[in-house]
Amino acid sequence: MPADAAIAALPIAETALKIPAHIAVIMDGNGRWAKARGKARTEGHVEGVKALRRLVNLAMAYGVRHLTVYSFSSENWRRPPEEVSFIFSLLRRFVASDLDTLHANNVRVRIIGSPEGLDPGLTRMIEGVQLKTLHNTGLELIVAFNYGGKGEIVEAARRIARDVAAGRLSANDINEASFARYLMTADTPDPDLIIRTSGEQRLSNFLLWQGAYAELVFLEENWPDFGETGFVKALTEYSRRKRRFGDVEAQEP
Ligand code: IPE
Ligand code: IPE
Ligand code: MG
After folding, report:
1. Cα 154 to ligand 3 centre (Å)
2. Can you give the pLDDT of all 253 residues of the chain as single tens digits?
3. Is 187 noted as a catalytic residue in this protein?
4. Which of 201, 203, 212, 238 makes the best surface tag, with the fewest CB within 10 Å?
């Protein structure tokens, strides 16, 4: 047997990392991180942006194709208005400070969520970011902002109903594949791995449809503490999982 054939036949080491094509992250625990340090919750959010930057760099370095981050849920409006407006201003500041670098790194940015409740300036900014990076071919960074999974599914159903009423779609042609095309994530494969920090073990209305077969990994650390250690821990856990998709044996996605 030629030497290179022997190498190819070697079993993959148990620790070999599988890199998910799509990772989605629930960035949770900013408030608790701040509280533990006697700081205001807003300081936790500021540190959270630094962790987001680390995550984007890690995703690029490890060859992840799609990265979705949950940055403001449709339920987060329940928070005090000062905190809500601070999070909104952070999004603006993140775009102002990071958009050029993201663009230079060939990152395609998309924002998913409802425009409802956002001021027109923010909506324009979101459109500008998407347009600027539209033709980039590197990492796809999807920011879920003012996003809720149930709301997304309802909105898809509403648009489908309109298309059926207008004769553009037949009710018989509604199936999982056609339905998914009405979701905000159309064109992006479902997440393989959903990571949540802060020890909470729930989805909080994140990617309810798309996460049907995602592997879930919960990390104890709060989001501002997230870095390569947590990232590799999640990937290691993911690599150990056997994804069956309803079958009896492990399957490739
Ligand atoms: C996540 O951190 C950030 C957002 C939800 C915007 P939290 O603000 O939820 O932090 P905890 O959960 O209160 O610690
Ligand atoms: C989920 O975190 C939303 C984001 C991370 C943006 P929350 O902190 O809002 O979730 P719950 O309220 O603990 O479920
Ligand atoms: Mg939280």
Report:
1. 24
2. 454 555 555 454 546 899 999 999 999 999 999 999 999 999 999 999 999 999 999 999 999 999 999 999 999 999 999 999 999 999 999 999 999 999 999 999 999 999 999 999 999 999 999 999 999 999 999 999 999 999 999 999 999 999 999 999 999 999 999 999 999 999 999 999 999 999 999 999 999 999 999 999 999 999 999 999 999 999 999 999 999 999 998 888 8
3. no
4. 201
Mutation probe of ligand 2 site: the residue of 35, 204, 216 with most atoms within 8 A of C-beta: 204
| AA identity, residue 208 | L
Q: Which of 169, 249, 179, 172 is nearest to 212 (CA)?
A: 179
Instruction: Tell me if 226 CB under 6 Å of ligand 2.
Output: no
Fold of 3-11+21-150+190-240: Undecaprenyl pyrophosphate synthetase (3.40.1180)
- The ligand with the least distance to the CA atom of 205 is 2
Does residue 28 carry a catalytic annotation? Answer: yes
